[in-house]
Amino acid sequence: MRVFQKNSNIFNLLSEGVSEGIIVVNTEQVIVATNTSAEEMFGYKKDELMGKPLDTLIPKRYHKKHDTHVEHFIAKSGKRQMGHGRDLYGVRKNGHEFPVEAGLNPFELYGATYVMALIIDITERKIKEKELSHWARIFDDSLNEIYVFDAKTFKFTHVNKEAQRNIGFTIDELVMMTPVDIKPEFNEPKFQELLMPILEEKTGKVKFETTHGRKDGSSYPVEVHLQLSAMGEKEVFVAIILDITERKNYTEKLEKTVLERTKQLTDALAKEKELNELKTRFLSLVSHEFKTPLSSILTSITLLGKYTQTEQQEKRDKHVTTIKNKVKYLDAILNDFLSVERLESGKVQYKIEHFPLSKVINEVVYDANMLLKEGQKIQYPENIDDIILEFDEKTLELALSNLVHNAIKYSPEDSIIDLQVETGDDGLLLKIIDTGMGIPKQEQKHIFNRYFRAKNALLTQGTGIGLNIAKQHLENLGASLNFSSIENKGSTFTVLIPKKINIT
């Protein structure tokens, strides 16, 4: 200590010119000299540290190890950084610890050995390092993909773990690549064009959707948030990437659902419109179909009251026949409506039995002959006497009667209604062929709809439910009813009765 006191002016002159703290200790680790920066750093007054052991400035938990390190250091007498690879801490007079960086330099003066420590308070540096470490962990552990690339070369400089995992490339591979290498939809000029608004400071960042190509050749949709930043003196772009595969899938599913719901709603509205039209048509039809025969019945009854003379019996018979026919027609209409109700409620009971086809044909033709127009004729089928069916006889008669009556109704005078019977592998075919008005092509798809009547048949009496009833009954038994028609040339209706009946 006397040596440094003798040379205090020289030491003060040299030490006070530096901002770092300087502490000199002898071989016994006793402080023999300090500068003002060291005293202020550790919270002591001028010369207050003189003669104190060096351990005064070191936290107690490090005392034992520190003594050993210093002794070893002095023995080697080499200049070096203290605590290399370890965090060093000093302790102030008030007991507060703080991180330090210390450089040690042994020297001899007048035959004695000393160690001079250059001390730097690195509290601010440690705070910044901690902050940087914190942000580095956030960067690396983020569930979003983060890419950092040079603003001039476009080469990647940093890529976090999630990005490496999803893209499939390692960081060593990525630092040799640019964003264009992982964006199949971009080339370099197109990518540079995307960056220009940022480089020209027209905007702070850009956001866009594109596709990333993985190392294994697969790809996935992403949303990119790109902005300019600085890393030291170097300008870099930071790209935060959101994998939007689930969003895309959800959006596509949502759009598909919306389309399906829209179609369902459109179909429902169309169905409701169709039902309303059917309701209107049905009410109009019922009104017309009931009004006409009722008017005829009323007229005939009125006239009957006037024919009181015996010689007027022929006229009375004529009107009685008219009344019978009209009542029979009304009864048929009511039976059709009741048949519809039974079909809808599932109350129809079918009776499958064996019977000759000729029996049904004969009954249908006999009844139909009463309805023939002037010059009309029914062509009876050939070679049917030996055909025995296993079916519901009443259903077949109802269907054939409806088809033959329609053929008569919609065919002109002096025409032929041809009945044909054919046997095939699928079963028995019954065809009713006419040369009447036919069905307009654009309306053929509706012909089996309940209450539907083609425009060219509106002036002809009918309810529009006969074909619907016939088809439903036949299909309930596993049979079928189809047709072909050409307007103004005629129609052919075909009943197929399968060999094996399957009741539904």
Can you put this structure into words, describing what you see?
With 504 residues, the chain is an alpha+beta fold. It has four domains: 2-122, Beta-Lactamase (2-Layer Sandwich), CATH 3.30.450.20; 142-243, Beta-Lactamase; 253-339, Helix Hairpins; 348-498, Histidine kinase-like ATPase, C-terminal domain (Heat Shock Protein 90), CATH 3.30.565.10. 42% of the residues lie in helices and 25% in strands. It has helices spanning 2-6, 8-15, 36-42, 63-76, 123-141, 161-167, 171-174, 188-199, 245-304, 313-345, 357-369, 393-409, 466-476; strands at residues 21-26, 31-34, 80-82, 88-91, 97-109, 112-121, 145-150, 156-159, 205-213, 219-231, 234-243, 352-356, 377-379, 388-392, 416-423, 427-433, 480-486, 490-498. Strands 1, 2, 3, 4, 5 and 6 form a six-stranded antiparallel beta sheet that branches. A hairpin with a 5-residue loop joins β4 (88-91) and β5 (97-109). The longest helix has 60 residues, at 245-304. The protein starts with a helix and ends in a 6-residue tail after the last strand.
